[in-house]
Write a structure and sequence with these properties.
heterodimer; A: 260 residues; mainly alpha; MetI-like fold; B: 304 residues; 76% helix; flat
């Protein structure tokens, strides 16, 4: 738990603050140091096949990957909470119909739908995270619905209904504050999933596009060049896996605490 | 059992229909036409072409025809692989993809269940904790990272195993490991959690009180109920393996569906992409259905 938090914090802080301090930017080409090994002057982790600094590129890619993941997870949080809260609050037929939609979407091959959108409407970062956010909200909707359903008949909710409070006031004043903690725990668990999806798409060349970079692109480029410069695969791969493990660990821990 | 089947089909069939409808609309909404080329066609030729392919008909008629063709397994011609129909490409790629996915599923089930059982033998022991950490790591190992790494270590550095193509049985080893590892981690976690729950139940305590050996208790009495959550993971696992297979086939140069799918996506080959998506959707819905039926068979309480 502590190790996961510390490692994640280190990765995030490095990705945000370190790049301006490095001698080379992530897109700059050092013609004198193509495929430089680790610990060469100016390039702590060496360079890639066209002489770009690996450390700077990994940090830049981490930043993009985390930004896309956070944005998409927030989209999922908003849609999922709205959908789940509505279904749970109204109950009955409305609940049945809305949850049927969620069940049906669960059975869809997500990744392929996102890829089809990408093919038809062209590739853009905006579309990547909108597409991912739009399919990752399902779990959130289920969890929020369950919570709202459980709260629905608690005395303090019934009391404010009896006192004549309008439904919207009860939802925003009583229900949402009470489900916030659980929703945040699931938000933490959505982020690593989105990281995986984004990296997967970018690895296939269907996600984030050059000159922007992301961990998925770096793993892909590294895989192409691994027989000569193995670090270009190992470094971004390690950062990706470490980030996902830490986020999973923290999310599960948070969820366990909230469930108590 | 029939009730479960019926309820699931009433969700699965509309979903499949929605996928086909969505695919069709996307294909029509996509900018450009199949006949666009560097040299613009004159209006008369264009009209004749549209007529020949039925593109001059109203949308609803086109949809009806597309549905009719899809139901017969005809997804139209591929736009990029000239002289190939999408159905022909699918028929070539599907056996490879299914073999890859099936082997990875077996790998994941054997390794995962074994890991969960070994961990549960001594709850909280060092082996249990070690397997717990390993499965948490395995779940987070995306196949597009493990795939190239396995190629690097076992193919390029050690030269033990083939890394590309399908020349011998050994060609399957690395792709199956890369694809199955995250699923193996998930199965191990589910098995371990299911066993922890089952061990606390009355029938297991009774079996222990009768003096059966711990291994017999674990395998004969605790494992069957503990496997129920593993079975319900089959649906999501199938989806994950199919998705992962896309990358694995690209990395290892296997001639499966996933590689056609990626090539089609990059080349905007709409009929190919949509045909593969519809097939994937049908496969995933099928596996979800199987998982639900197995679930009902294994757990009498669900049959109700």
């Amino acid at each position: 738990m502590k190790i996961a938090g510390a490692l994640l914090a280190a990765i995030v802080v490095a990705a945000l603050l370190l790049p301006p301090l490095l001698p080379w930017s992530y897109a700059a080409i050092d013609w004198d140091a193509v495929r430089a090994p680790a610990f060469s002057p100016g390039h702590l982790l060496g360079t890639d096949s066209v002489g770009r600094d690996l450390l700077a590129r990994t940090l830049a890619g981490t930043r993009v990957t985390l930004a896309v993941a956070t944005a998409a997870a927030l989209v999922a949080l908003v849609i999922g909470t709205a959908w789940g809260a509505t279904a749970g609050w109204f109950g009955g037929r409305v609940d049945e119909a809305m949850m049927r939609v969620v069940d049906a979407l669960y059975a869809l091959p997500f990744m392929f739908v996102v890829i089809v959108l990408m093919v038809v409407f062209g590739r853009s970062v905006l579309l990547v995270f909108l597409g991912i956010g739009a399919v990752e909200w399902l779990t959130m909707a289920r969890v929020v619905r369950g919570q709202v359903l459980a709260l629905r008949n608690r005395p303090f909710i019934l009391a404010s209904e009896a006192a004549g409070a309008p439904g919207r006031a009860i939802l925003t004043g009583h229900i949402l504050p009470n489900i916030a903690s659980v929703a945040i725990a699931y938000l933490m668990l959505t982020v690593p999933q989105v990281v995986m999806v984004e990296s997967f798409l970018s690895f296939l060349g269907l996600g984030v596009q050059e000159p922007l970079t992301s961990l998925g692109i770096l793993v892909h480029d590294g895989a192409d060049d691994m027989d000569i410069a193995p670090l270009t695969l190992i470094v971004p791969g390690f950062v990706l896996v470490a980030t996902v493990i830490c986020l999973n660990r923290l999310g599960e821990d948070l969820r366990a605490r909230m469930a108590r | 059992m029939i009730a479960i089947l019926f309820r699931r089909l009433t969700t699965a069939l509309p979903t499949l229909f929605a996928v086909i409808l969505l695919s069709f609309l996307l294909m029509r909404a996509a900018p450009g036409s199949p006949f666009d080329s560097e040299r613009p066609l004159d209006a008369a030729t264009r009209a004749a072409m549209d007529k020949a392919y039925g593109l001059d008909q109203p949308m609803i008629v086109q949809l009806g025809r597309y549905l009719g063709h899809v139901l017969q397994g005809d997804f139209g011609p591929s736009l990029v692989y000239k002289d190939f129909t999408v159905s022909g490409l699918i028929a070539q790629g599907l056996p490879v993809s299914l073999t890859l996915g099936g082997l990875a599923l077996i790998f994941a089930a054997v390794l995962g269940i074994a890991g969960g059982v070994i961990g549960a033998l001594r709850p909280g022991g060092w082996l249990d904790r070690w397997i717990g950490v390993k499965s948490a790591v395995a779940v987070a190992l995306p196949s597009f990272v493990t795939g190239p790494l396995l190629v690097l270590v076992f193919g390029l550095w050690l030269s033990w195993l083939p890394v590309s193509g399908l020349d011998s049985a050994a060609s399957w080893i690395l792709p199956v490991i890369a694809l199955g590892t995250p699923a193996a981690g998930a199965v191990a976690k589910l098995t371990r959690a299911g066993l922890a729950e089952a061990m606390a139940q009355d029938h297991v305590r009774t079996a222990r009180a009768r003096g059966l050996s711990p291994l017999t208790v674990l395998l004969r009495h605790a494992l069957p109920p503990a496997l129920i959550p593993v079975v319900s993971y089959l649906g999501p696992a199938a989806a994950g393996l199919l998705t992962g297979a896309v990358v694995i086939e690209t990395v290892f140069g296997l001639p499966g569906l996933g590689r056609y799918f990626v090539q089609g996506a990059l080349n905007r080959d709409y009929p190919l992409v949509l045909g593969v998506v519809i097939l994937y959707a049908a496969l995933i819905l099928f596996f979800n259905l199987i998982a639900d039926l197995l679930y009902g068979w294994l757990d009498p309480r669900v049959r109700g």
